Write a sequence for this structure.
């Protein structure tokens, strides 16, 4: 029996944008229509293998999708409904509260290893987030932080904070302090300002001018990560060229650039980075191609990734990971028909879908509201292999909990335990979130106790989920208790942790405690991100504390961040009626110079 796919006309891939063009300032986003990127290439119908032949393969690892889903009833895989924000389990190759929150342990910054190239692996239990650039710079090498002088780091960061806020000559003060930069110190300071590109870049340039110090590949890559997150393409490419002149380019450097341009949907520039690698005599192999395809897929450019794959296929022999990445890309944009086509092409080329590929298809079906098909696939995995892992069960349990099917979720949980798969923190997080959404907190606490009995240690995601439960129930003090327990357990908090607690206090109209959480976050060495400022400024505006909100708003813009999403009408009206037109005028000018023209126009209307 054949599963026919519709034909689509071949469309040639346009030539890659040359790097020298955007070095000259051509950083505009190219039109994908002008690039000739349409549907992926399918020159002819692709029949699936006969069902009789596939029944002979008892391990089931190379069964086409059509057979897997039609072994019970007719499949509906060619019908899709919703987008699937799934993260590929293969890591990319190319992560004063003093009264209420006493210091339990000294703060330890997250490890500081900037974007070490992570090889593809089949760790099906690994969980990745969409904010790759944050995780890359917040999960830096532990050795850098341990070996750097923490007192010196604190001293440098204090100078930068104070001088930058006062708009003073930060560089002159750093000179007067007699600071001798080294690579570990620079990495730690850049991590502290990983969301504030302007002070970070000024410090980076200051360090480069110090006698006896020169940046190496790791410090350059750290700075490029920060610029990439804020999409400062011209500066990033300038640093890339500078590294090339000094012979400091590494595979990690190109990986950062590929991810940056792909995340911004700048496909042609991402491809041009691969061409640039050849210019600098770097080997471009299948791992590099996989990195590029993965970055495009994560940016929901599955069609572009597919077209590029078909263009490069004659030059680079694809492997299992290549097909897994393409399947994930199609699942991300809810095109299960194309995902099935790639699955079957992978089998035709002699590759066996492994557990990671199965888990991707499983989650793709669930996210597309095809739970019955997903369960069929899950049952086939149990019968014919590869056997479901903890990750497989987590995917299914999470979906069931999300839609309120808690009894079925518990049944699968029990089945997982009986099969010999020990539950991990991710599974418990799914269950606790599901029961908390149903306001069954007694079961949440029972699950917590069960975790202790089974020696399953909570991780950061579980603690954040518990904090979110308390925040949603408007219990900020309980959220703080969980945070204290989190710190006592040695589990690192994140900026997101503080943002949730801070928001809960502002919602409860407790500005003082909200500001105390802000200070606690900074005291522990975390750089507030755009969401942090949005919560803080918005909370102060709602409480009528306009002067404070204006100060933090200006601080945010000065650091190079985008204007927050707050109620600017209430903000502007408050200043207008209190006689603060001059303040509004100055703020509007600052917004305009920083590129926040929409907010600037709104403020100017109130001034006039």
């Amino acid at each position: 029996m054949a599963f026919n796919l519709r034909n689509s006309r071949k469309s040639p891939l346009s030539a890659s944008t040359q790097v020298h063009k955007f070095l000259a300032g051509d950083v505009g986003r190219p039109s994908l229509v002008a690039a000739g990127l349409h549907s992926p290439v399918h020159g002819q119908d692709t029949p699936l293998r006969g069902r009789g032949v596939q029944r002979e393969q008892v391990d089931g690892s190379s069964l086409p999708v059509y057979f897997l889903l039609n072994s019970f009833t007719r499949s509906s895989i060619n019908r899709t409904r919703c987008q699937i924000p799934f993260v590929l389990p293969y890591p990319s190759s190319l992560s004063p509260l003093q009264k209420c929150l006493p210091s339990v342990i000294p703060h330890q910054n997250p490890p500081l290893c900037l974007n070490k190239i992570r090889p593809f692996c089949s760790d099906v239990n690994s969980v990745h987030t969409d904010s790759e650039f944050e995780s890359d710079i917040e999960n830096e090498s532990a050795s850098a932080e341990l070996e750097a002088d923490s007192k010196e780091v604190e001293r440098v960061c204090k100078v930068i904070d104070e001088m930058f806020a006062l708009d003073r000559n930060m560089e002159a003060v750093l000179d007067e302090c007699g600071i001798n930069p080294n690579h570990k110190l620079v990495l730690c300071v850049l991590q502290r300002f990983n969301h504030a590109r302007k002070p970070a870049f000024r410090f980076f340039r200051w360090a480069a001018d110090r006698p006896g110090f020169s940046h190496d590949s790791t410090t350059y890559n750290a700075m490029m990560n920060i610029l990439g997150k804020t999409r400062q393409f011209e500066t990033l490419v300038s640093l890339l060229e500078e590294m090339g002149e000094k012979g400091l380019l590494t595979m990690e450097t190109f990986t950062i650039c590929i991810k940056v341009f792909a995340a911004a949907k700048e496909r042609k520039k991402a491809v041009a980075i691969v061409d640039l690698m050849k210019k600098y005599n770097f080997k471009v192999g299948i791992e590099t191609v996989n990195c590029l395809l993965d970055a495009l897929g994560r940016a929901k450019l599955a069609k572009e990734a597919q077209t590029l794959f078909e263009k490069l296929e004659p030059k680079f022999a694809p492997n299992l990971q290549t097909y897994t990445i393409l399947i994930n890309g199609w699942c991300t944009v809810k095109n299960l028909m194309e995902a099935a086509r790639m699955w079957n092409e992978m089998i035709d080329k002699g590759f066996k879908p492994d557990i990671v590929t199965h888990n991707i298809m499983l989650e793709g079906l669930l996210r597309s509201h095809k739970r019955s098909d997903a369960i069929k696939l899950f049952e086939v995995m149990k019968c014919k292999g590869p056997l479901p892992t903890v990750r497989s069960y987590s995917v299914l349990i999470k979906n069931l909990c999300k839609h309120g099917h808690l009894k079925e979720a518990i049944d699968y949980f029990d089945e997982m335990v009986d099969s010999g798969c020990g539950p991990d923190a991710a599974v418990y997080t799914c269950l606790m979130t599901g029961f908390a959404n149903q306001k069954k907190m007694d079961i949440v606490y029972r699950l917590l106790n069960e975790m202790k009995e089974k020696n399953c240690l909570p991780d950061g995601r579980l603690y954040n989920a518990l904090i979110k439960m308390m925040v949603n129930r408007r219990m900020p003090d309980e959220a703080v208790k969980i945070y204290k327990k989190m710190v006592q357990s040695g589990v690192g908090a994140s900026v997101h942790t503080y943002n949730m607690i801070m928001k809960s206090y502002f919602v409860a109209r407790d500005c003082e405690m909200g500001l105390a959480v802000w200070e606690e976050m900074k005291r522990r060495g975390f750089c507030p991100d755009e969401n942090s400022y949005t919560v803080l400024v918005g909370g102060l505006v709602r409480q009528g504390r306009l002067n404070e909100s204006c100060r933090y708003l200006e601080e945010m813009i000065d650091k190079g961040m985008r204007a927050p999403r707050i109620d600017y009408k209430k903000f502007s009206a408050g200043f207008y009626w209190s006689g603060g037109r001059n303040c509004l005028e100055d703020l509007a000018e600052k917004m305009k110079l920083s590129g926040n023209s929409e907010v600037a126009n709104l403020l100017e209307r109130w001034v006039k």
